[in-house]
Amino acid sequence: MANNKGVYHARWEQSFVRIMTPLEEFIQRQTTSGVLLMICAVIALFIANSALYEKYEHFLHTYAGFVIGDFKFQLSALHWINEALMAGFFFIMGLELKRELLVGELASPKQALLPITAALGGVLIPAGAYLVVNWSSGSLSGWGIPMATDIAFAIGALSLLGARVPKNLVTFLIALAIVDDLIAVAVIALFYTEHIDVVTLIYAAGCTGLLAAMNLWGIRRPLPYAVVGAVLWAAMLASGIHATIAGIIVAFVIPIRPKFEPQTFIDRIKESAHKMQKAIGDTPDIIHNNRFRSLVTALDDGATLAQAPAQRLEHMLHIPVAYIVIPIFALANAGIPIDFESFGEYLENAITVGVLVGLLVGKPLGIVGFTWLTVKVGWAELPAGLNMKHIFGVGMLGGIGFTMSIFIADLGFASSPHDLLMAKTGILLASAIAGLGGFCWLLLHTKKPSEPD
């Protein structure tokens, strides 16, 4: 179908015409990802409490890999998901953090201070609450579980309120959750590593140095980074440090500056347009016009080089990570067999209680308390249009700990299936209550733009 301007459209192409800012694109994808996460979590729970549970468990513990001579590399399906696929999630998270640090909410120290202190409160108080509850139980290794906020679920819940929610509140939540995740990554690297193989860690350091050198040499194509990044991932896996950290490292060394500055690119577009106009004048038949096709190809290559590699990769990989990797993670990790007759005992377990108290009490208390204190001492101001009721709603949504909390639980209780079950029960229950509670709170304490204050 062609319009009167000579533009051909299939019906499905119409949705790609609207241009979104990086923030709008990020919010839209996180919102959809949150819905998919919810659906996959429900499916996993259904499978875990049905006749399919044995097949589900058998599949997750089926090993796959490759053998070359005497060398064998095999992981269970669950480990491929949690160690390999989730490296992609950490890579995207690293790119988002890098963007926020350079040009986003965390770029200015004054802007960054409020979400950073809020995130610190949302990490320290929940971890402390868990330790207090479990101090005499001996289950202290789960202290990192209530630290994390699931950004997809939290933004998904916030977006359901539509225009009621000030845009500043969304950006505050995004910045807070990104800092929160960065702290969680540091905690995983420092405190959830059982052993370290120094030799393979040296190899990992060498790969990191090579990646940094590639950045300095001006290499902007993604393939070299992917190859060295894969070697880095394998070295990290062998070293004992969680392999997903490789995703963060690669994200931080991907070039953030494009090859062409905007004005240079614009000048080249004008020059190419003039040449294309001349080429099409000589041979109007586009199919047989090799000169025209060559110019279009060169323009396409130039458009790629006019974009920052980090931003291009974030745009390209965000959809598969948000719509495939994270839902698969939910399917593999949210399958909790619930014995309803013993559910009361679950709620009496110190690990379950510690996670519930950390996420439902510690999170809002830490986020709101540290935000209030930062504003009170004059270090920062609340963003325009926000008040402490908004912050309390975000604090409640911060209690949605799904993805990173389950990830940390798997590391903390890998050798104790019963304790892991208790931790996951607490995570799912707390996330459901926090999401519903935060949504209802903000629904009651926000107004549509057309409503008078």
Description:
By secondary structure, the protein is mainly α. It folds into two domains: 19-188 and 311-445, Na+/H+ antiporter like fold (Up-down Bundle), CATH 1.20.1530; 262-303. The chain has 17 helices and two strands. It has helices spanning 22-48, 53-60, 77-103, 109-134, 151-159, 167-191, 198-216, 222-239, 245-253, 262-282, 290-305, 309-333, 343-346, 350-376, 388-397, 402-412, 417-445, and strands at 63-68, 71-76. The protein is globular, with a radius of gyration of 25 Å. Helices cover 69% and strands 3% of the residues. The longest helix has 29 residues, at 417-445. Mean pLDDT is 81; it is low at 8-19. The protein has a two-stranded antiparallel sheet with strand order 1-2. 40% of the residues are buried. α3 packs parallel to α9.
